[in-house]
Write a structure and sequence with these properties.
The chain is of the alpha+beta class. The chain is built from ten helices and 18 strands.
């Protein structure tokens, strides 16, 4: 036990308690078997801090991880209206985002670019990368508090997300898990998404979503959007220039605007990213780790890595307001 505690290394702001470290009562204690005694501690820590790291428990395989997540009482969710490529492992477990190893995935709350999202998200480290590959996290309440007041006011009415699916982004067939246009249109109608079909079958969607949200249990205000991920400024400079020249600003794979449709200046998103960086907590994975987050209270990211890495994900407890925010 003491060895596990002393081996826990983290970097981040001094005021952050993320993540709460929970270790076994004895070496080899099965994680799933430990849940009954840990449940109250986990529930309290999630609401107080936003995330827990379960380290040193026996997690023999992905199925044991899946069952552990499912035992919290909510069916595991399928990955619908996704924004990044993932592969289904089975039973509500997915691979983490399948972006090239050299790329950073910035901090974000899962599916904060929609009006419905999972309240709980779990990560299980099957194989820790020999170099890099951390899953940094941050307190969404602290991000909101640190965000400059002028930016909070500008974002408060919401974020407008525009997506053009096709050769330069995830195909709409993969995003909506269907080949049928009628099913896409039905989903969009339910979710408050405007859609438009192009002459060659391409799809464009527009949706106004929350930028700032209130946690349904704690009543606390959180920064809750993915404007900095979807905005064109998230692209590498040469990629952005090429796409703008080839497609035009209105037909980029994805972009974000203020609620009134006006452009978001690059420098505003740069300031948002500085706030996110200042609140980032990072720790190296160990094989067998399970990280559980309250998806509204804690954001997550992915650091670049070298060598093999396998981290799987499960989500549960849908929440949101499809009719508005």
């Amino acid at each position: 036990m003491n060895e596990l505690l002393t081996r826990f290394e983290r970097t981040g702001p001094a005021a952050s308690d993320l993540p709460v470290l929970i270790t076994p009562d004895y070496q080899g204690e099965p994680l799933q078997a430990a849940l009954p005694r840990l449940r109250g501690e986990i529930d309290q820590a999630l609401l107080r801090v936003g995330g827990v790291l379960l380290r040193g428990f026996a997690v023999p395989g992905v199925e044991h991880f899946r069952q552990f997540a499912a035992d919290f009482g909510h069916p595991l969710l399928s990955y619908e209206f996704g924004s990044t490529p993932r592969s289904a492992v089975g039973g509500g477990v997915y691979t983490s985002t399948e972006y090239p190893a050299h790329q950073t995935i910035p901090l974000h709350n899962e599916q904060a670019y929609t009006r419905e999202w999972p309240m709980k998200i779990w990560f299980h480290c099957v194989t820790a990368a020999p170099v890099g590959g951390a899953t940094p996290i941050a307190d969404s309440r602290a991000i909101y508090r640190r965000m400059p007041e002028a930016i909070r006011r500008r974002f408060e009415p919401g974020v407008l997300y525009v997506r053009n699916y096709g050769d330069f982004d995830v195909p709409w067939q993969d995003v909506f898990n269907t080949e049928q246009r009628a099913e896409v249109e039905a989903y969009c109608a339910r979710a408050g998404i405007r859609w438009e079909w192009g002459p060659d079958g391409e799809l464009r969607t527009t949706q106004l979503c929350q930028a700032i949200a209130t946690h349904p249990v704690t009543g606390e205000t959180v920064w809750f959007n993915q404007a900095h991920l979807f905005h064109v400024s998230n692209l590498q400079a040469e990629v952005r220039e090429s796409l703008e020249e080839l497609l035009g600003i209105d037909h980029l794979p994805r972009n974000t605007y203020f609620a009134d449709g006006s452009p978001m200046p690059d420098d505003v998103l740069d300031e948002v990213r500085r706030v996110l960086d200042a609140e980032t907590v990072s720790f190296p994975w160990q094989e067998g780790d399970v990280l559980m987050l309250d998806n509204m209270l804690a954001a997550h990211a992915r650091a670049p890595f070298q060598g093999p890495r396998k981290v799987v994900v499960a989500m549960a407890e849908p929440h949101g307001n499809p009719d508005g925010f």
